[in-house]
Amino acid sequence: MEMKKRISLELRNRTPAEVAELVVDNCRSSDGEIEGLTDEFKELEFLSMVNVGLTSLAKLPTLPKLRKLELSDNNILGSLETLAEKCANLTYLNLSGNKIKELSTLEALQNLKNLKSLDLFNCEITTLEDYRESIFELLPQVTYLDGFDAEDNEAPDSEADDDDDDEDGEEGAGQLGDYEEEEEDEEGSEGGEVGLSYLMKEDIQEADVRGEKRKRDAEDEGEDDDEDDD
Predict the structure, then answer these.
(1) pTM for this one?
(2) Per-residue pLDDT tens digits for 70-97
(3) Where is region (Disordered) located (predicted)?
(4) Which of 29, 141, 156, 189 has its CA 20 to 30 A from that of 119?
(5) In what order do the strands lie in the sheet with 117-119?
(6) 3-155 — its CATH code?
(7) What does the pLDDT look like over 125-164, one tens digit per residue?
(8) pLDDT of the residue at 228
(9) What is the DSSP string of 155-216?
């Protein structure tokens, strides 16, 4: 699907100004350029364009509120100065799996003063000697590179925490459902036991009645024998 059409579908009867998050992963861009994204998306805070065949960011519109940008698995070589010009408030940038080779390509990111997390995993630049030290020196505002800080401490993943909360909620719901099912099973089993006890009680009562009847019959026969003897 073409990027322009995909963006139109993702609007879902909203105006561009009402969209805070936009994901157009795995669609197709013509000539490696961004299409269908305009300055009207002024409230956009999260944009994901993973694996869409981008080679250039030249047509990226001005997105003043954009904080998180996913551009992994494209063919971007450079022209990163556009990011500083159009998305000045970026705090997270994922460029993993692109064609970035030289440190000089990243110099343009120095103007992203709020950039805290940068991902270059699987880019050729990661093979350079002293790669991590060089990036932290070049971009001192960056705290996390490829998910780790300069001391190799892993970046906190707020999304993972959210997922854990969701999973906990689902598990809690499941546990509640299981508990309700167990209660129903217990009630059912109790009902079965009551029914069984009731039937057993009836059988015992019938047996007692039969026993009493046989006893009376025997006594009657004994009285008849005594009368005969007389």
Answers:
(1) 0.69
(2) 999 999 999 899 999 999 999 999 999 9
(3) 149-230
(4) 29
(5) 21-23, 46-48, 68-70, 92-94, 117-119, 144-145
(6) 3.80.10.10
(7) 999 999 999 999 999 999 999 999 999 999 987 544 444 4
(8) 52
(9) PP-HHHHHHHHHHHHHHHHHHHHHHHHHHHHHHHHHHHHHHHHHHHHHHHHHHHHHHHHHHH
